[in-house]
Amino acid sequence: MLAIEHVTKEYSTRHGKREVLRDISFRLERGAHLGILGRNGAGKSTLIRMISGAERPTSGRIIRGMQVSWPLAFGGAFQSHLTGLDNLKFVCRVYGVDYRPLVPFVEEFTELGDYFREPVLHYSNGMLTRLAFALSMAIEFDCFLIDEAMVVGDVRFHERCHLELFHKRKDRAFILVTHDANVIKLYCQNACVLHEGNLIQFPSVEAAYDFYQSTMTVRPEPVEL
After folding, report:
1. pTM as predicted
2. Tens of pLDDT, residues 13-63
3. Average model confidence (pLDDT) across the chain
């Protein structure tokens, strides 16, 4: 089980403290698929980074009772002077996994060719994304954290990512944060909406979608005549 208990996140700005997330609590059981909808800037990526451990909450706690992935396709932890292969070895060492059986999968999925054995500082953004996603799939996590904003690339790469994650690993838990309600409807059993720093839970994906749509409605300012 993954438990988020009364988590608040603040950042210091030139204008003082800015509260991004406020007193957020929820639980995710093994095999459950949770979608979190939110407008751009709602704090979706911040929440995912905290659940992964890349950032710490200002207050509250996160209990990881299962092995949780880093945010998929996140390459921020790469050692730029190491090759793609050496970064695979490093990640596997951290998680206590033998890297050798994983090399063929990562090489085939990334389609990096000779660049797999070149320093990643020479990679394009697309090459880094392919490597990051392949490493995420190579380690068998209990729960995957998916920030759709991080998964970029052409249509064919998107299709391969969806096959690996949503079909071959459909028995794993995942949290999917996005502003695309159609993706939530397609892959998630339950959904929440991040709105004005609060995480609002709903009894169904449809109810969450309806509320999310209402937050997207722009009300025109009254015009004085």
Report:
1. 0.84
2. 888 899 999 999 999 999 999 999 988 888 998 999 999 998 999 999 999
3. 88
Contacts of 183 (CB under 8 A, 6+ apart): 35, 148, 176
Quote the tokens at residue 35. 């979608």
Q: How many Å apart are CA 103 and CA 95, to the nearest integer?
A: 16
Query: How many Å apart are CA 135 and CA 112, to the nearest integer?
Result: 13
Q: Report how far residue 87's alpha carbon sits from residue 205's, in angstroms, rounded to the nearest whole number.
A: 38
Both tokens of 122, joined, read 């020479």
What is the spatial distance between Cα 124 and Cα 117, in angstroms, rounded to a whole number?
A: 15
Question: Cα 179 from chain centroid?
Answer: 13
Assigned token pair, 141: 């996590």
Q: How far apart are CA 104 and CA 137, in angstroms?
A: 13
Residue keyed to tokens 């090399």: 103
Q: Cβ(180)–Cβ(40) under 8 Å?
A: no
User: Vertex 45, ends 174 and 183: CA angle to 5°?
Assistant: 50
Residue 134: which residues within 8 A CB-CB, separation 6 or more? 105, 106, 109, 110
Residue 164: DSSP 8-state: I
User: Exposure string (b/e) for 171-201, b if CB count within 10 Å is 16 or more?
Assistant: ebbbbbbbbebebbeebbebbbbbbebebbe
